[in-house]
Specification:
Length: 89
């Protein structure tokens, strides 16, 4: 039986794998390295327009909507993962 920490880590990996696909598609870069520690400042292509596209596709992929304040505050992959996990678990 998996404990809560193992479940959480497994859920995070699934979310991160989907986010990698979204980032690579929306930033049009199959080689972009995406991990939980990736920040907006680390990726030149992650500008304000790309951010809105990312938010839109992530909302569709995970079937929920971010609040306006979340959209404005999110500036890392970790924040996306945490926001998604809160809604799914």
């Amino acid at each position: 039986m998996m404990d809560a920490a193992s479940n959480n880590a497994a859920a995070e990996e699934v979310i991160l794998a989907r986010l990698r696909d979204v980032f690579r598609a929306e930033l049009d870069d199959d080689g972009v390295a995406i991990c939980v520690d990736t920040r907006r400042a680390d990726i030149k292509a992650w500008d304000s327009l790309a951010h809105i596209r990312l938010v839109n596709v992530i909302e569709s992929a995970f079937d929920f909507q971010f609040s306006l304040s979340e959209i404005e505050e999110i500036n890392s992959v970790r924040q996306f993962v945490d926001a998604i996990r809160e809604r799914l678990l």
